[in-house]
């Protein structure tokens, strides 16, 4: 199923009044700080919403009184004392003053983009269910909401250390009354019910709207010490298992299953895809690879694109003359002798497409490259940041199926969406070709583009590892989308460069604040796998011995892998 995009303007004056309802946990310790941060952020929304806190857990009534909120203590609970979803939503539907209801988990900070976005959806659809992925951030202190810059400060922290959640982590739902006033007896705060909501919306043919690209919902990371069994109890305990009963014979959806996805409204018409083609003196001096490369873009079955050629030659005349004569619509940028990676960044700086891809002569796009990859974004309702593919060679003699299977199996992960990790580095070196990837442009620009201190191949791997550590979701097409040259035999010098850059890539990866804590003990494992692979590539005995020594050095530092409950 292909989802439909809906453009949202960031510049409207919000006038919509809504009701937000939530069921806080006991206001104790860190959870108490987190919930007060979240609730205060809701009070700062404009127009100020009606806020209802439900339940009798410690501190709920006192917090409602402190911030002038409505308080409803009488909700049904199960035998373990956990509030039940049907009672919560029924009470909210009965008691709310406003037609538009918003359920939010009590650890979610909302920002000023929330109500303007909802208002624009309300103007388009009489019925709907809005949901979206969240951003995860470590916040241990109370936020000073008297500081007029509190939201910008929070966004700065999010840019530095925030991670985007998976497609199945849904923490807010917006819908009009009387939708969802009759629900099963799900235990709140246990796995399953949020994905049931998506399936139920689809079952009722309600527009299910993914707002992940527009609404910044910030989840404050926390432990599960409020539960006797900690995290395991929330997702696999008795109450979670009881929730699963209601999911039998019922579709459990996520943000990628939405029928509509929200995108930023552009002030001027812009192309869907920007194709950035860097060139060097090699393409100018040796044959006709550049025209062949450009022609492969114009031969695409998908036509909503722009082409940006970044000329890395010292001389400006030859290349500009060719392009002006043969391809007058191409955007031409001259950047003398700065290198391919700098050319990527230069093209990225001027690109206008929602998506970007790169094409380095003599590589060529296969005719359906753009159509297939853009379709992936639409089929996943905007819940992707990257689409990969395999690639072929002119002779097709080189068999890359093994690498495709190894890479694709990791990407397939939970719900068919997963990321790229540091311990995949040997596979990444072998499989990745820059031209096979279609990126969401905003993500590449937001996080600084390519590192010009690295080689072309290392720079793309560094970018992938950076984006994946921040939660970027990806899928991998089995069919090739480009034709590339046969891989050149690896020389000793090239292998040594790969070794040096691999250490730099892994150092960069594991030093990022966005790498999950459970991954950090795996750093030495990533190094050992990489040096084991490098040693297998080389026949030079002294160099092989060097790599084996590095392997053993990191192997002895490897920590046992443990998962905390």
UniProtKB/TrEMBL annotation:
The keyword Transferase applies. Residues 274-381 form the Glycosyltransferase 2-like domain. InterPro entries: Glyco_trans_2-like, Nucleotide-diphossugar_trans. GO terms for molecular function: hexosyltransferase activity. Keywords: Transferase. It holds the Pfam family Glycos_transf_2. This is Putative glycosyl transferase.
